[in-house]
Structure formats: C-alpha cells, structure tokens
TrEMBL record:
Record-given protein name: Sugar ABC transporter ATP-binding protein
A UniProt-annotated Pfam family: ABC_tran
InterPro entries registered for this protein in UniProt: AAA+_ATPase, ABC_carbohydrate_import_ATPase, ABC_transporter-like_ATP-bd, ABC_transporter-like_CS, P-loop_NTPase
Gene Ontology terms for molecular function: ATP binding; ATP hydrolysis activity
Cited CDD domains: ABC_Carb_Monos_I, ABC_Carb_Monos_II
Sections of the chain in a coiled coil: none
All residue ranges annotated as the ABC transporter domain in the record: 4-244, 259-501
Keyword Metal-binding: no
Keywords of this entry: ATP-binding, Cell membrane, Membrane, Nucleotide-binding, Repeat, Sugar transport, Translocase, Transport
Family under the similarity heading: Belongs to the ABC transporter superfamily.
C-alpha cells in the first residue's frame, strides 16, 4: 500500500490555473523526486499535500484513507512535514528555538523546557557538525547566520517534526557540495528507516544521486512517473519538454540578425554584485534580450543593479557609448533606464493613492517638474494608458479600485509616458491574465521595432521563447549559455538550465 497518493488535484486563482491535474504516488521508504520547469505546478502540489493551499478538486490519500488537509496543523497531525522554498524562520530566535519551533517542549504544559530544546537542537545538528561553518551554535540568533546556515536550520526544523512524510522544496539551493552530501546522508538514513520523502530540485546531478523515482510535471499537469535507475538526464528533460522542442519564437533568424547589427545601446562588461558575478552582454537598438534559467539564479539581481536599486561591486557599463554610473534609481531614470517589476505590490503601485499619482512620478522626474497641473498630466499619460487598453473609471479613483492586471498596466504606463532608451522587465507578467499578457507583449515588440533596447526576464519559458531575440541562460549567478537563432528551443533552454544547475 502506498504511503501517500494525490489524485486529480486542481487549483486556480481566478483566471490563473496553478495546477490543472496533479497526480502522485509516494511509497514508504523512497525518495520521490518532483521535477518540472518554472510554473509547472510542483510547489502548488506540495502545498496542497501540506495543507497550506486548499485544492479546488482532487483528493489526498494517506495509508489508503482519504483525508482532508485543512491546514498546516492538520498536516502535522497526519504526519506530514515540509521545507518551503521561502524560509520560515524566526530571525531573532536562536538556532535551537527555531529547530523546535513546530512543537516547543514545555514543563507542566506552560513553560518552555529549555533543556529539552537544547537537547533537540544538538541531536539534529550532530549529523551536520563538520559542515555548519563558523559562528553556528545552538544559542546563535538566526539573524546572524549566513544564507547556507539558515537553510540548514530550516532543514533541521523540518527533520525535527519526525513526520513519516517529509517534503523538501528546493532545500539545497544555498548549500555547498559538502553540505548537500551530508544532507543526502541523512535522507538515505531516513529512507532506510522507511520514511517517505518528496524532493524537489533543479539540479540534475542531485536528482540522480538521491532519487528512487521521479514524477515529471509540465504546464500544471503530471505527465509521467519513472524509475530513475531506468532513466538518464536527456530522457527526463525530454519528458519535461514533451512535444514542444521546436523553435516557437515569433521572429526568424534573419530578423534577429538584423536587430543585432543595429547600434549598441547598452554594453555590460564583467559586472559583479550580490547574487551574480562576471556578467557580460550587450543589447542593440530594437533588440529584445531574454534572461532565462531557473528561478533565482541572478536574473533579477542583475536587472536591479542596472537600475541602481542595488550596488554592483565590479565591472563597467556603457550606455550609448558613454560610461553609465547610476548608483540609485533616480539617476538611472534620468539617464534613460526604466524598470518594471512583476512584484507590483512591493516595487510598483503606490497604495491608497489616485491612479493619476501612480502613473506620473517618472514623468515628473524625467521632466524635472516642480508643480502639478492635473490637466497637463492627464494629457501626458493618456497615450500610454490607451496603448495598454487600461480600464479605469477616472484617474482620480484610487489604484486599489483596479484589477491586478490593470494595476500592472498603470505601472507600465508610468514608464512609457516618456519612452526610455533601455527597458528592464523583471518578470513583468507575474500574476496577470492571459489577455493582458498578450497585449503587453504586443506593445513590447512594437517598442523594439521603434528602436528601444529591451531586457526581459520571465519565469515562464514560453514568454522568452516567443518574444526574445536572444536568451542568456543564467545559473548560479553567471551566464551559462547563450541561445540564438534556431537554438532557441524549449529543449535547449531546459537542457542549459538544468545541466548547468
């Protein structure tokens, strides 16, 4: 009898379908790998199993019995522990307190048993003793730890649940090779004890090193499950790609070659900074350069550094042949840079303010305006709003009155009112509907045809393959491969990303 089964799980957020059909069978005493490209539904499936997301359809079966996982507490009671991609540590609590956070031992059911907390910490730290690094101790506040050390604490916290079913969603992303091998030793021991483990990773060598079977997801659906002993790297990647190996870009090789022979607008040489190193590339007038690869490999960090939102530590940048030294967004804007983030809540909208105030700040800055004349401002922003087919009642309404897609259009119109020389797009369509995406990319191609230089990072591979003239595949904060012309295929994109990882 399988330890855990998921049948026909489905989850949608409005018009966005995060999971069309998730199926999985997890046996006792196995490490079951879950793999798929960005947005394939892996994390959503795991969140359904762990109770942090309620499915719209489907069932979860544990030990042959259908269960309703109503929340994380219910999942723990059912014997499910999970490591999330986004760490859930209490930064100002100690390592020991974080490890026991899910179930703090108490004296008389009231006071925390600090001796028991310390003993638990020592127990789960012991297997990692020689790879913890300097400054790591049971009484160290988590806020003082490095990224790899914090990730180890999260792993220990998950192990401390003692759950029969453990889910690890990209647990090795910040670990070095020695730390990964020690973690795998722990997983092998748990597997030998009959525990059941779901393991998500984008590193192909890890998948084959630790996994027994692999379930492959594509476009929100489970497509196949196979024994890793009967598979190889190429077989797994082809299953991820399916029948979509051919070039699907809208342009052809001749168009791309013509654009690349145009005037170089932006030249980047050997820049390094937090999350990336030794990055070099150029963008010509009228060219769309794509940043591809797995999520979190330095793409967004490079874009933010170009915009002056984070400091670069080395390298040179030229804009139209002259040195570009913007160390803050204000200076970048005045030199002709624009940055559009998909995280409109954090980097885009000015909450609780009118639409007009949200769409005009860049126009104010670029034109060095001192006084606001609403009539003139409306006339200035209307062409960009109309080009994006933005729906709103009046510009005096609060931006919160708009749908998510129209809020993002307001953010985009902010930058296009006074067209920039270089447009930096940081996953700009995240969380917006298909119709809005289509309109946005039609506009992006139109801007490129008018000579704008554009850099596009997207977590959706199809957006890059459909719109980018070249794709720079990132891995570990560096450019692993450049895909041009007929090499711009889904297979090559996956192969470059996963093999490099």
């Amino acid at each position: 009898m399988a330890k855990l089964q998921v049948r026909g799980a489905r989850k949608a957020y409005g018009a966005t379908i995060a999971l069309k059909r998730g199926d999985m069978v997890l046996e006792s005493g196995e490490v079951h790998v879950l793999i798929g490209s960005n947005g394939s539904g892996k994390s959503t499936l795991c969140k359904i199993i762990s109770g942090s997301v309620r499915p719209d359809a489907g069932e979860v079966i544990i030990d042959g019995r259908p269960v309703t996982v109503t929340g994380p507490q219910m999942a723990r009671e059912l014997g499910i522990g999970i490591f999330y991609q986004e760490l859930s540590l209490a930064a100002h609590r100690t390592v020991a307190e974080n490890i026991s956070l899910a179930r703090l031992p108490a004296n008389a059911g009231v006071f925390v048993d600090h001796a028991a907390v310390g003993a638990t910490a020592e127990r789960y730290m012991a297997p990692f003793a020689d790879v913890l690094g300097d400054g790591f101790a049971a009484d160290t506040p988590v806020v003082k730890l490095r990224a790899d050390q914090r990730q180890l604490v999260e792993i220990m916290k998950t192990l401390a649940t003692e759950a029969p079913v453990l889910i690890f969603d990209e647990p090795t992303s910040a670990l070095d090779s020695a730390q990964v091998e020690r973690f795998f030793d722990v997983l092998r021991k748990l597997r030998g004890e009959g525990r059941s483990i779901i393991f998500i990773s984008h590193r192909m060598d890890e998948i084959f090193a630790i996994g027994d079977r692999v379930t492959i997801m594509r476009d929100g659906e489970t497509v196949t499950t196979m024994a890793l002993s009967d598979a190889d790297h190429d077989m797994v990647i082809r299953a991820m790609v399916g029948g979509q190996e051919a070039l699907i870009a809208t342009g052809n090789a001749d168009d791309e070659g013509t654009r690349r022979t145009g005037k170089t607008i932006l030249s980047v040489q050997n820049i390094s900074g937090p999350g990336f190193s030794e990055i070099s590339f150029s963008v010509a007038a009228g060219e769309i350069v794509g940043f591809g690869g797995l999520h979190g490999q330095g793409q967004s960090s490079v874009l933010r550094a170009l915009f002056g939102a984070s400091r670069r530590q080395a390298g040179t940048i030229t804009l139209n042949g002259t040195p570009y030294t913007a160390t803050a967004p204000r200076a970048a804007i005045r030199q002709g840079m624009a940055y559009i983030s998909g995280d409109r809540g954090h980097d885009g909208v000015i909450t609780d303010r009118p639409i007009l105030e949200n769409v005009t700040p860049v126009h104010f800055l670029r034109n060095r305006l001192t006084f606001a004349f609403p009539g003139r401002l409306r006339a200035a922003v209307l062409p960009a709003l109309q080009a994006l087919r933005t729906k709103y009642a009046t510009l005096s309404h609060p931006i919160s009155s708009l749908s998510g897609g129209n809020q993002q259009k307001i953010v985009i119109a902010r930058w296009l009112t006074d067209p920039p020389q270089v447009l930096l797009l940081d996953d700009p369509t995240k969380g917006i509907d298909l119709a809005t995406k289509t309109e946005l990319f039609a506009l992006i191609r139109e801007l490129a045809e008018k000579g704008m230089a554009i850099i596009l990072y997207s977590s959706e591979d199809s957006e890059l393959l459909t719109n980018a003239d070249r794709i720079l595949v990132f891995s570990g904060g560096a450019i692993a491969r450049e895909l041009t012309g007929a090499d711009r295929t889904r297979y090559n994109l996956y192969h470059a990303a996963y093999e490099a990882a």
